[in-house]
Design goal:
The chain is an alpha+beta fold. The chain has one domain: 2-Layer Sandwich (50s Ribosomal Protein L5, Chain: A), CATH 3.30.1440. It starts with 15 loop residues before the first strand and ends in a 29-residue tail after the last helix.
Length: 171
């Protein structure tokens, strides 16, 4: 292969991105925004709510539209979790739409952690919704790595993780 590999960003690629998180109770808005900025630095909050105090809990929904996936995808490559990402990001895919969550607590330290299905991790989650024509092909391309030349992967193939998040065994 000549030159550096093309990296997808989600911008200008026919993809609609929505990032959502719920702040509740003792969640620190400043720390939650820090977690979001780890992978979506373009996310802006119009007005930052006050930090929670005793008797004054936070209760807010933050939603961000049209954010690029570039920083998130770069982290997947750096952390070498591309097959896991393909499985989690496509787990609930329906036609040209999918939704997945990542741990906010892990995001604060710039790590991507996909919570075990059906379990809410301590510290809450960031929900990412992707929609667009050709989404399956986009996900496979966005998570591609050289190992797939020897062991090809596609969405929901025999090598996909099990529904409970466990690795499938294959030879």
């Amino acid at each position: 292969m000549d030159g550096p590999r093309l990296r997808l960003t989600g911008i200008g690629e026919g993809l609609s991105t929505t990032v959502v998180t719920v702040l509740s109770g003792a969640d620190s808005p400043r720390r939650v925004l820090q977690a979001i900025h780890s992978f979506f630095p373009e996310a802006n909050v119009d007005s930052m709510p006050d930090e929670p105090s005793f008797g004054s809990a936070v209760d807010e929904l933050w939603s961000f539209e049209g954010l690029p996936m570039q920083t998130f995808l770069a982290a997947l490559h750096e952390q070498r979790i591309l097959d896991t990402a393909l499985d989690f990001m496509s787990r609930d895919i329906v036609e040209d739409s999918t939704e997945f969550t990542i741990s906010r607590q892990a995001a604060i330290v710039e790590k991507i952690s996909f919570p075990i299905p059906g379990k809410e991790p301590v510290g809450g989650v960031i929900t990412v919704r992707l929609q667009g024509s050709g989404l399956k092909e986009w996900l496979e391309a966005a998570t591609w790595h050289n190992g797939r030349a020897q062991v090809p992967r596609t969405i929901h193939d025999d090598r996909s993780m099990l529904d409970d998040g466990e690795a499938s065994t294959w030879h």
